[in-house]
Amino acid sequence: MASTEEQHGSRPGVLFDVDGTLVDTNYLHTLAWSRAFAEVGEWAPMKAIHRHIGMGGDQLVPDVLGHDCPEAHEARERHYRELMGEAKVFPGARELLRRLHDDGLTVVLASSAPGSELEAMMDLLDAGDAIDATTSSSDADRSKPAPDIFQAAMRAGNVDRERALVVGDSVWDVQAARAAGLACVGVESGGFSVHELADAGALHTYRDVQEMLDQVRTSPLAVILPH
Questions:
Q1: How do residues 86-130 score in pLDDT, each as one tens digit?
Q2: Residue 169 is part of which domain span?
Q3: CA-CA distance, 42 to 126, in Å (whole number)?
């Protein structure tokens, strides 16, 4: 008789945020927003901008400025394109994706970045053979901390909700995961502390993906690994 997994086609999987989790871009996004605001005659301290990175721009702008500013969104895209060449893959990111994929987990990049930015990050990661599915901003009606992108990622990878984990770097990732009914493992590489991530509800927090890779067999990921 076919197993439940075979009958329904769903598999255990890991949904990875990308910016600040696998690729070192959070402070580039902060700078891009800062330059965009300046260009359109607005201002916000970089600290305030950074605390909102990981949240969708549709929510970041009114939260930071107190009102929406459509021109700032357009300017940010241009300024970020100018900075993208400075993005670096975090040590251990590529190896972690491949390790989990080889161990039998479905690996989904649950990014809410625009498609062009996601493609650039995937080129940097150079781990396409370990990535089963991806999402981008076009796959979600609402941005983080709404659950939409993780719900879309589960559909894209045909991931079993009962055997899924999110890996993210921001409190917005944790909140979005919880809203989707998923546990989230945090990494501090995006600039949010272990205490902030834990307070938001992270199941466990690592310094970065390298530390997670080093401890993968004793991490929450071990619980969903196929046996």
A1: 999 999 999 999 999 999 999 999 999 999 999 999 999 999 999
A2: 4-25+88-224
A3: 37
Q: Are residues 98 and 142 in the same domain?
A: yes
Q: What is the DSSP letter of 181?
A: T
6 pLDDT band (50/70/90 cuts)? very low
The length of the chain is: 227
For residues 159 and 106, the answer to whether their CB atoms sit within 8 Å is yes
Instruction: Round to whole Å and give the CA distance between 73 and 61.
Output: 8
Count of the separate structural domains present in the chain: 2
Q: Are residues 113 and 217 in the same domain?
A: yes
**Domain endpoint, select from 86, 106, 126:** 86
- CA neighbours within 13 Å on the CB side: how many for 89? 17
Q: Which residue has the tokens 């150079």?
A: 126
Query: 48-93: per-residue pLDDT in tens?
Result: 999 999 998 999 999 999 999 999 999 999 999 999 999 999 999 9
Q: Is the pTM of this model over 0.85?
A: yes
